[in-house]
Design a protein that fits this description.
Blueprint lengths: L3 E4 L5 H12 L3 E6 L4 H9 L4 E5 L5 H14 L5 E4 L20 H26 L5 E5 L15 H21 L5 E5 L17 H17 L1
Parallel strand pairs: 1-2, 1-4, 2-3, 4-5, 5-6
Helix pairs in contact: 1-6, 3-4, 4-5
């Protein structure tokens, strides 16, 4: 039986590249997507039996619950969860004085990047507990590092990733006694819609690195 993995935000960028990486390695992949993606549909044509497209909006509790129910109907257990869904909303150059703190983008960033992964972990925990590897990976960012922070703006994104890092630590404290392995991974500066065209890495290279880290976590 193939190992199973759920990847959120799988419709493009690093999420799409991770989906391809795990499929090529023989995994049974559940790809969480907020809306239909033609690129993912093409991958589905290549791996009709190994890839399931799961409607999933991490900001909506009902959507997360429905996704967990759908995955549970197709597999008795998940080995790995990759919380990859994320957003960068707003202007990177906006200073404190220019920041509109009533802008819904600020709240939406936190809902997706910080609370979204927690909703997914909560609802998929029974499936993960039934798996042998019990790996949870949060795709974070160096932007969430407090000690290494050099930025003077980008409040919503950086604060959301710092919150995700804290969430990872709390989940580790709570779940590691049950055999779970919880990690936060910085994917690098990747050439995606979020990272921009000048970024260092292409999505496939980033996904390959993340895949290798997860294999080491599993082996350790």
């Amino acid at each position: 039986m193939s190992e199973t993995v759920l990847i959120t935000g799988a419709g493009r960028g690093v999420g799409l590249a991770l989906t391809k990486e795990f499929l090529a390695a023989g995994y049974r992949v559940f790809a969480g997507v907020r809306k239909t993606c033609h690129l993912l549909e093409k991958v589905k044509e290549q791996y009709p039996a190994a890839l399931s497209l799961i409607p999933l909006d991490v900001t909506e509790m009902a959507s997360v619950r429905a996704a967990a129910t759908k995955v549970a109907a197709e597999t008795p257990a998940l080995e790995t969860l990759i919380n990859n869904a994320g957003v960068y909303l707003g202007d990177k150059t906006r200073t404190l004085e220019e920041l509109d703190l009533e802008d819904n983008h600020l709240q939406q960033t936190m809902e997706v990047n910080a609370f979204g992964p927690l909703r997914v972990v909560q609802q998929f925990l029974p499936l993960l507990a039934a798996g042998g590897k019990r790996i949870i990976v949060n795709i974070s960012s160096e932007a969430g590092s407090i000690g290494d922070c050099w930025r003077r703006q980008e409040y919503a994104y950086t604060m959301s990733k710092a919150a995700l890092n804290m969430q990872t630590r709390i989940l580790h404290n709570y779940l590691s006694p049950r055999g779970f392995k919880i990690k936060a991974i910085h994917p690098g500066w990747v050439r995606t819609d979020m990272g921009g065209k000048e970024a260092d890495l292409d999505p496939a290279t980033s996904a390959g690195g993340i895949f290798n880290v997860i294999q080491r976590v599993a082996a350790g």
